[in-house]
Amino acid sequence: MKGPSRRARGPKQTPRNARIAQRRADERGSPITFGEPGRTPKARKEPLHLPHVVIVGGGFGGLYAAKALRHAPVRITLLDRKNHHLFQPLLYQVATAGLNPAEIAAPIRRVLRDQRNVRVLLAEVTGIDPKERTVTSSAGTFGYDYLIVATGASHSYFGHEEWAAMAPGLKSLEDALEIRRRVLLAFEKAECCAPSQEERAAWLTFVIVGGGPTGVELAGTLAEVAHHTVANDFRMIDPTAARIVLVEGIDRVLPTYSTLLSARAERQLQRLGVEVRTNARVTGIDAQGVQIGEERIAAKTVLWAAGVKASPLGQALGAPLDRAGRVKVSPDLSVPGHPEIFVVGDLATLEQDGSPVPGLAPAAIQEARHTAKNIVRSIQGEERRPFRYLDKGTLATIGRNAAVADLGRLELSGFVAWLAWLLIHVFFLIGFRNRLLVLFDWAFSYLTYERSARLITGDCPKAAPTEPAPRR
C-alpha cells in the first residue's frame, strides 16, 4: 500500500528548508505582542526595544496620529472603547434619518489593518499614571514611552445633569439613534396617542437648545423632515404644522461665524419654518417641556446642542485645565512637565493669535499629524516644533441648498456654500464605500425628499388609540 504523495506529505524538512520557511515567516510578519504580562513576545520586524506609543481614542486625533506614524520606528497600541471611527460632522444626518450608522463609521481595525506597527484593542481606559508612565484599561496595564490622549469631549449641561434624560445630546451613534427614535416616535404618538389638541401640539413641538453648528443643522433638517419627508404619511395629524424651536442664549446663532453669516443663517432657518429664539436662556427642562425665563414651551421632544465638556481623563494628567476641563497644552501639544505626553483634539486647548484653536475635525487632524512628527523628532534627537493651526475655513449646513461658509476672506452662503459643504464632507469620509453610499443617499434624498433610515427602535406606543377628528 502506497504512502501519501510528496504533495500530501509536504516538503522535506531539511535545515535549509527550515531556514527558508523562517525567513518567509519573518517577511510576512508574525502577530504583534507588546510584552503583556505572562506573554512571550514573538519575533517580528518591529522588535520590542522600539519606543512604545500608546494612543487613547480612535477619533480624528487618535486615528490620524496612528496613520501618521505608519513609517516611524515605533510600535503603537491604540485603545478605544468603541470598535469604530465615527465621522462626527455627519452624526446629525443619522439622528434625522438621512443616513445609516454604518455609512459614517468604519471599524478601526479595518482602517489600520495594513499598518503593521499598530495594534488595536477594544478597551476602556480607566486611569493614567504619568509618573510610572502607564495606562490602565479594561484590557490591562500598558507602559509607554510616548502617550497621545485624544478622548474628545462629551455633553455639558452646565450643572443640570438631571436634564440629560429629557434632552439627549449628540456625540455618539447611540445618541444619534436615540434622537432618531424620539423624533420619529413623536409623530407616531401624535397620530395615535394624543387625546387633545394641546397634547398633539406638544408631541409636534421640537425644541433644540443651542444655536451652534449642531443645533442649526438639527433644526434645519428637522424642519425638512416635518414639511416634506413625512408630510403625507399620516391621516390624523398634519406633520407640516410641527413647530421647530431653536433656542440660543446669546444674541445670534453660529456665534463663531461673522455677524453677517450669522444673520444669513438665521434668515435661512426662518425660511425653512424654524422659530429662532436668541437671548433666551433655558432655566428648566422636564418631560413636558422647556422653561425659558418666564415662558413655558410645551414640548415632548427636546434636543441638547448647547455645550460640551472635556473627557475626564484630562484630570488624570496632572495638568492645568480650563473651565470646560480641557488640558492647557504647551506649544508643541505636550503636557507641561511631561514632554512624553501629548493631548490632541477636543481635549486640548491652545491659544493662537489670541484665540483658542477651534475644536473641529480639521484642527484635530492637524494636531495629530504634528504630534506624530514631533515624536519622530524626539526619537531622532531633534528639537520639537510648536504647533501652528492652518485655518482652512468652517462650514455649517442648514438645509437643502442652504449653508454658510467662512473661508477667511471669502464668505459664502446659500447653494454655493451648501455644495462646498457637501463635497468637503464626502471627501473626508473614511472609505470609498461610505463615500459612495452617502453620495447615493444624498442624491436620492435631494430628488425625492425621502430619508432612507426612518426606523424606530425601542418600544412602540402603548397608550390606547384615540379617534381624533381627521385633518381637513
Automatic annotation (TrEMBL):
Keyword Transmembrane helix tagged: yes
Keyword annotations of the record: FAD, Flavoprotein, Membrane, NAD, Oxidoreductase, Transit peptide, Transmembrane, Transmembrane helix
Biased composition (Basic residues): 1-10
Pfam name, any one: Pyr_redox_2
Residue stretches making up the FAD/NAD(P)-binding domain: 52-368
Disordered, as annotated region: 1-46
Family: Belongs to the NADH dehydrogenase family.
Protein's recorded name: NADH:ubiquinone reductase (non-electrogenic)
Source organism per UniProt: Polyangium mundeleinium
